[in-house]
Write a structure and sequence with these properties.
88% of the residues lie in helices and 0% in strands. It has 488 residues and is mostly helical. The relative contact order is 0.11.
């Protein structure tokens, strides 16, 4: 199988897994939105904020360093595992000590006990380092996909059952713990690689030399993606934070689609890192196919948000409507700039990732306190969106320089998608407005009409402008299906 075929197959596998995961996650979120309170989601978010920040120090960017590496792989993976395991033990103790202080900062004692329970996941996750890194490096995404699907399914089943039983936010805690355990067990089931306690001082230095830039970027990225939760939980309270989180989940589907390509494209780019023309073609194809989905999804959610919240989530989530519409633009620009990260990492320039992440952090910190303090929930959404939009510009600029892509080539790739999406948006808003005024449609009927109109208009206009790309996408899917059929 050629690298192109293997990449297409892996994209199909990851896309299939992610579509299933998002569908399952969406159904689960809808059910939980009707069973739990906004504050329940706020409590869990604050706990994961602490756990996520501390857990960054367990890997130090070694996973990406090993994927990019070309020699002494076995020793490198086990050296990385050994360091990861030792650090995880220290971090577990640190979390136990910090939990009461974290709870006191947010004035909610429930945070302490939730944090102590979920801290166990840091120890468990350290044992998944070897199989997960090896599966990604060797492009064995089908096996990786199986673990994700089953763990997500177990999470949804346990969480929904406990929520129906009246466990409140504890349903989210125990669902997450079960998911972590199931995924770890499955990784060892599908992976031929088992961890060994090995420490090679020279390899450790080499891993750290590359990984320190990824680690620094990950810390800054973590701040970028979580300072909104930290600031929101403190300034507007856990209930308002719950509205924000619900809006964020539904308005950033485009960002998660970008994540599908990033999982596959980094190890693929790493294999052709010395061939810039091939990297350029691969990136532009990735940008085109990802944007064919992210643009209409982002503006489509913007269009149907008022009806979607009332009909699907319930009346108690109405305060999340405007945040959802604002954050659609966050997801859109994040999906554009997010496609650049795997390129910078693959060509051995992780420093650019760090610098770009630092820029976003500075922009976010400049806006977030002022806008949230005076604008509340809406101000929080505006601050995060403005920071993403402004930081996307230099991200794309450096990408064009590294791959020798002209601005004309870049925008020509996106032009049919942008035109089709804008036309679909305008037509849908006009039809929705005049249909409601003239026929007094119910909220449910308006939701169905808006969704159908937007999807239909987008596909028709795009087919008229760029039929070739649609056919290429169909052919890519067919190739994936034929490869899967042959392998089975």
């Amino acid at each position: 199988m050629s690298l192109r075929q293997q990449t297409g197959r892996n994209l199909g596998i990851i896309a299939g897994m992610d579509i299933f995961s998002k569908l399952l996650g969406s159904i689960t979120l809808i059910v939980l939105a009707r069973l739990l309170l906004p504050a329940d989601f706020g409590i869990i978010a604050i706990v994961y904020l602490l756990l996520g920040g501390i857990n960054l120090f367990s890997e130090l960017g070694f996973g990406d360093a090993i994927i990019q590496r070309r020699d002494r792989i076995e020793e490198s993976v086990n050296t990385g595992f050994t360091i990861n395991l030792i650090l995880s033990g220290f971090l577990f103790v640190a979390i136990i000590i910090l939990a009461p202080l974290w709870a006191a900062f947010y004035n909610d004692s429930n945070i302490t006990h939730v944090t102590w329970v979920l801290a166990i996941s840091i120890l468990l996750t350290s044992f998944s380092f070897v199989p997960s890194v090896r599966l990604r490096k060797d492009l064995m995404f089908k096996k990786f996909a199986v673990t994700g699907i089953v763990s997500e399914l177990s999470n949804s089943c346990i969480t929904i059952y406990l929520a129906f039983a009246g466990w409140g936010y504890w349903s989210l805690v125990y669902g997450g713990m079960v998911s972590t355990i199931v995924k770890l067990l499955l990784l060892y089931k599908v992976s031929p690689w088992k961890p060994k306690i090995i420490f090679d001082k020279q390899i450790a230095k080499e891993l750290f030399k590359y990984g320190k830039h990824i680690f620094a970027a990950n810390i800054i990225i973590f701040i970028n993606t979580n300072v909104d939760r930290a600031m929101g939980g403190k300034l507007i309270g856990l209930t308002a934070l719950g509205y924000y989180l619900m809006a964020f989940q539904w308005s950033t589907f485009s960002k998660r689609i970008m994540g599908i390509s990033e999982k596959v494209m980094f190890p693929t780019y790493a294999k052709i890192q010395g061939d810039i023309p091939k990297l350029k073609r691969g990136y532009l194809d990735t940008l085109k196919y990802v944007s064919m989905l992210t643009f209409p999804i982002s503006l489509g959610v913007f269009t149907i948000a008022p009806e979607f919240v009332v009909v699907v989530l319930g009346e108690k989530w109405v305060p999340a409507i405007m945040p959802m519409q604002i954050l659609c633009f966050y997801g859109l620009f994040e999906s554009l700039s997010g496609t650049t990260g795997s390129v910078f990492a693959a060509v051995g320039k992780p420093k650019i990732l760090r610098d770009l992440a630092a820029l976003r952090m500075i922009l976010l910190l400049l806006f977030i306190y002022f806008l949230t303090f005076f604008g509340g929930l809406t101000g929080l959404c505006l601050a995060t969106t403005i920071a993403v939009v402004l930081s996307a510009i230099p991200s794309i600029y450096y990408l064009l320089q590294v791959l020798d892509i002209s601005l004309t080539e870049y925008f020509n790739t996106l032009k049919p998608i942008i035109i089709s999406t804008i036309i679909a948006l305008v037509v849908t808003l006009l039809i929705k407005k005049y249909s409601i005024d003239m026929f007094y449609l119910s909220t449910s009927i308006t939701l169905i009409l808006s969704f159908t109109t937007f999807s239909t208009v987008y596909l028709i206009i795009f087919a008229l402008i760029d039929r070739k790309s649609l056919l290429e996408l169909v052919q890519l899917v067919k190739s994936f299906l034929s490869l899967e059929s042959a392998n089975n």
